[in-house]
Amino acid sequence: MAFTLEKNELTEALAKNTLDDIPSANPNAQKITGLVKKSGKVKGYRLSDDTIVEKKDAIKLARQGGIAGVGIAHRGDTEYLKSIPDGTEDNNLSHLPTVSVDPATK
């Protein structure tokens, strides 16, 4: 039996392979709508309910099913969130706007 994958499916499968964990999202899970950056590095996320969460808290929330559409990956000892590949780039985290956070609220 021959097994063939479309190029898009193969790319998606390989990208999913880079994720350490793909948590199942709860029905009421938030989506990431913006990135909080400092010196070009992601330090946190704005969620669809307009709350801002730090990166480490977002990873914990994603593991608990509280954030939809993301998996957890790592580089070295650092964990980070990554969009679950779905064949489109428009909803990748890297395409989201950078949001500013009032320093008085942090």
TrEMBL record:
InterPro entries associated with the record: DUF3892
Source organism superkingdom: Bacteria
Residue numbers spanned by region Disordered: 83-106
Protein name: DUF3892 domain-containing protein
Species for this entry: Anaerotignum neopropionicum
